[in-house]
């Protein structure tokens, strides 16, 4: 069989930490959103900047079930809030119909001096909070992570304002920025993979993306770096949400189709109707490996360490998630796919 008639493999990529370096965008937005959330509290200016290291943030994210960074920000703020003193006891009934007014009033009652000391004195403060509290959820914080942007989800809005920047945020959501009025961190993103590598892989294989990003945030770097031509399919958070809504309409059951659910991988494989020689998914998180192993098509899971700030820990986490291969760079990916033809 010559090269032209060989069946091609399907290679699906996660985007963040795989194709796109998000250490100065999404990951930094989590740290900035967590700090900005407490602005207005007593001693806010004493909070370290940044609050904690990227390695500590990665440790929490790699614990699983935190595919999007809104959920990660929500958890981080909950953990930090355990070290915050409030001058007036907060109760679930202490609720203003205007969520932003309620949020700002409550933060003004807070004193973060204890949190500031804790973050400055502990060598691994976020890890210590996570080990002690786990996935804690405070009622007040939960109220601020309910609904969507424009309808009360303050944590998501703070994050999106930082990540997108004022102009892109307002054009995307048709909502005025409230806390951040500078250029967005999305413009700090860079490529982790050479275009020549994508070009070579796309000659012999079908390439696709399965990402937890919303569609507009996935399209932005694909257009900026002129990558769309390499990918036959791009599935995003929007596809998961649309399917979730359809299933709820039909079955009256709420489901989450974001990773580690294999929905996106199954949808891409299904669109090809088995016209490929093999299925591969390249990701940088344990949830990616779980999605691959749970997919009906039998994906080979490939964990990549390229963007990690703690490669040894990530390797262990990927091994625990039963990654089929763990690679340092994309040269190894081509060898794996070629060896399985």
Describe this structure in words.
The chain starts with 9 loop residues before the first strand and ends with a helix. It is built from 16 helices and 10 strands. The chain has a 6-stranded parallel sheet with strand order 7-6-1-8-9-10, with helices on both faces. Strands 2-5 form a two-stranded antiparallel ribbon. It has a two-stranded antiparallel sheet with strand order 3-4. By secondary structure, the chain is of the alpha/beta class.
Give structural attributes:
single chain; about 350 residues; alpha/beta; Rossmann fold; 6-stranded parallel sheet; two-stranded antiparallel ribbon; 10 strands
SSE topology:
Blueprint: E1 10-13, E2 20-21, H1 26-37, H2 54-61, H3 69-81, E3 85-86, H4 99-108, E4 110-111, H5 113-121, H6 125-133, H7 139-143, H8 154-164, H9 166-173, E5 190-191, H10 195-204, E6 206-210, H11 215-224, E7 233-235, H12 237-251, H13 263-272, E8 279-283, H14 286-294, E9 300-304, H15 311-320, E10 325-327, H16 330-339
Parallel strand pairs: 1-6, 1-8, 6-7, 8-9, 9-10
Antiparallel strand pairs: 2-5, 3-4
Helix pairs in contact: 1-3, 1-8, 2-6, 8-9
Concise synopsis of the structure shown:
The protein has helices at 26-37, 54-61, 69-81, 99-108, 113-121, 125-133, 139-143, 154-164, 166-173, 195-204, 215-224, 237-251, 263-272, 286-294, 311-320, 330-339; strands spanning 10-13, 20-21, 85-86, 110-111, 190-191, 206-210, 233-235, 279-283, 300-304, 325-327. With 341 residues, the chain is an alpha/beta fold.
């Amino acid at each position: 069989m010559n090269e032209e008639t060989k069946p091609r493999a399907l290679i699906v990529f996660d985007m963040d930490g795989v194709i796109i370096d998000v250490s100065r965008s999404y990951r930094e937005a989590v740290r900035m959103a967590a700090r900005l959330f407490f602005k207005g509290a007593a001693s806010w200016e004493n909070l370290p900047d940044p609050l904690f290291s990227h390695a500590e943030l990665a440790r929490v994210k790699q614990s699983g079930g935190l595919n999007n960074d809104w959920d990660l920000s929500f958890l981080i703020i909950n953990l930090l809030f355990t070290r915050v003193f409030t001058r007036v006891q907060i109760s679930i009934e202490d609720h203003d119909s205007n969520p932003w007014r309620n949020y700002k009033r409550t933060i003004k009652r807070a004193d973060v001096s204890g949190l500031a000391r804790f973050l400055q004195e502990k060598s691994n403060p976020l890890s210590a909070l996570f080990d002690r509290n786990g996935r804690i959820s405070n009622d007040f914080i939960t109220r601020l992570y309910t609904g969507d942007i424009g309808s009360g989800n303050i944590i998501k809005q703070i994050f999106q304002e930082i990540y997108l920047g004022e102009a892109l945020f307002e054009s995307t959501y048709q909502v005025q920025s409230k806390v951040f009025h500078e250029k967005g961190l999305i413009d700090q993103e860079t490529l982790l993979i050479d275009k020549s590598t994508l070009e070579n892989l796309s000659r012999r294989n079908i390439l696709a993306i399965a990402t937890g990003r919303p569609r507009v945030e996935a399209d932005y770097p694909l257009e900026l770096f002129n990558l769309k031509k390499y990918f036959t399919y791009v599935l995003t958070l929007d596809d998961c949400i649309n399917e979730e809504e359809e299933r709820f309409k039909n079955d009256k059951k709420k489901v989450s189709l974001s990773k580690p659910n294999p929905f996106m991988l199954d949808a891409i494989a299904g669109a090809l109707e088995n016209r490929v020689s093999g299925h591969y998914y390249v990701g940088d998180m344990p949830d990616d490996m779980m999605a691959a192993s749970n997919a009906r098509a039998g994906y080979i899971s490939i964990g990549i360490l390229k963007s990690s700030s703690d490669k040894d820990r990530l390797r262990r986490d990927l091994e625990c998630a039963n990654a089929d291969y763990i690679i340092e760079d994309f040269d190894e990916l081509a060898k794996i796919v070629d060896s399985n033809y």
